[in-house]
Amino acid sequence: MTGTDTAPTIETVFRIEAARIIAGVTRVVRDIGIAEELAQDALVAALEQWPRSGVPDKPGAWLMATAKHRAIDLVRRKETYARKLAEVGRTLEDVPPPPEPGDPEDIDDDLLRLIFTSCHPVLSTQARIALTLRLLGGLTTEEIARAYLSSEPTVAQRIVRAKRTLAKAGVPFEVPYGEDRGARLSSVLEVIYLIFNEGYSATSGENLVRPVLCEDALRLARVLQGLMPDEPEVHGLAALLEFQGSRLPTRTGPDGELVLLADQDRSKWDRLLIRRGMAALRRAGVGEYSLQAAIAACHARANRYADTDWTMIASLYERLMALTPSPVVELNRAVAVAMAYGPQAGLEIVDALAELGSLSDYHLLPSVRGDLLERLGRTAEARAEFERAAALTGNARERDLLLARAERIRKLPLPPMFVLSPLPNRFRRRRFEVQPRC
Questions:
Q1: Dist. CA 233–CA 74, nearest whole Å
Q2: Measured at the alpha carbon of residue 25, what is the angle toward residues 21 and 29, in degrees to the nearest 5?
Q3: What is the DSSP letter of 252?
Q4: What CATH number is attached to the domain comprising 138?
Q5: Going by C-beta distance under 8 Å and a sequence separation of 6 or more, which residues neighbour residue 41?
Q6: DSSP state string for 138-187
Q7: For residue 139, which phi and psi values (nearest 5 degrees)?
Q8: What sections of the protein cross the membrane (predicted)?
Q9: 3-state secondary structure at position 258
Q10: Is the whole model's pTM more than 0.85, yes or no?
């Protein structure tokens, strides 16, 4: 293929290979910012040469080799060439040597190193998310800004500052070892989790879901599974996202309106993703994401909404509460208890949470309370709670649903609206945890 027809091919190849190219070049130059620039240089070279010479048989390898050659040239131009060459000499070979035998902790994989570097705790959560989407998700600055309803200059500055922070802090391009790996891994998992969650239930804007973020998070989780197959929580997170991803096509209607879980056509749930989720869950442990995945599996196993095992879900949330106690996890447990043992049992837990005040600006607390009050026949109180929830939410679709519920509550009896989301979040993240039945 030659001529202008090569442009779409080049763009597709670069998007697929960009993360690996940046990772490979970072090992040479030890600077993510410079590595990304060199990867872009390789893309420019391809745009210049491939229309004339044609797309090579191995386009990814061509881009990697071009970027690495430019990286080596850059290192050689440095005054400290000899020292730098000694430090990175091992990385100048096309194929890096295997890890030393007898050291199972040594994970010699550039992409894994890039993941841990991009998600380093020295960066803020927003910076980690933006940098991860840019380097590993392959999203442009414009796409990230659009996904998070932010301005492109703001996102660009956030990414630039993140790179500078990593360089200034001297963050090594490596996978940490021992106890440090566990701490850093939790940061990596959190970033992937938050990317998916923002796509699954947008915190603001007109759209309830942003599928591109879910797809990128799922891909990152699968990559991490392949790179760290012995980490149970990696499989726990992957299982959770597979289950949630399976229901994405049925969460919204033709006009983007919310479709309640009880009304979703379960025959349209992606069975392949559910099977992948079940396989990952079998390899998961008993950590935070694994327990959330087990909750999601309860929904995935139910052929009908009426078949949902709420008793099991309540038990799983009790275990999650013991592992990672938070007001929002307790709110989820309250909903499960209400579904399993009746609305009064759930309302007692919700009222206790309301008295604490820690969820005073969290719209799902009055949403849940309104549902439980309606089920108990206390319709006037329920309507007030739905109106208060609508005033607190930042998502237009949720606000419309809550206001409609408040207006119709006396005229049209509706089925219970709120159930547990299989994606509970820590309250500090301000994400949806208990959601409309979706």
A1: 39
A2: 160
A3: B
A4: 1.10.10.10
A5: 66, 67, 70
A6: ---HHHHHHHTT--HHHHHHHHHHHHHHHHHHT--SS---HHHHHHHHHH
A7: -80, 145
A8: none
A9: strand
A10: no
pLDDT in tens, 399-431: 888 998 898 786 655 555 554 444 444 433 433
Neighbouring C-beta atoms of residue 47, cutoff 10 Å: 14
Torsion of CA 236, 238, 244, 249, to 10 degrees: -170
* Among 245, 282, 286, residue whose Cα is nearest residue 423: 245
**The Cα angle at residue 248 between residues 296 and 415, in degrees rounded to 5:** 70
Assess whether 190 and 307 both reside in one domain. Answer: yes
* Greatest C-alpha distance within the chain: 81
Q: Are residues 147 and 35 in the same domain?
A: no
Indicate if 224 and 140 belong to the same structural domain: no
The predicted-structure confidence for 133-178, as pLDDT tens digits, reads as follows 888 777 788 878 876 767 889 999 999 999 999 988 888 888 887 7
What is the enclosing helix (H) or strand (E) of 324?
A: none
Nearest to 273 by CA among 252, 296, 305, 290: 296
Domain count, the chain: 3
The residue with tokens 């006009």 is 255
Q: Choose among 362, 355, 412, 359: nearest CA to 383.
A: 412
Are residues 422 and 315 part of one domain? yes
Residue with tokens 């091992």: 90
CA dist 55 → 28, 40, 43, 238 (Å): 26, 17, 12, 35
Q: Are 238 and 280 in contact (CB under 8 A)?
A: yes
CB contact at 8 A, 68 and 17: no
CA 245/CA 431 separation, integer angstroms: 17
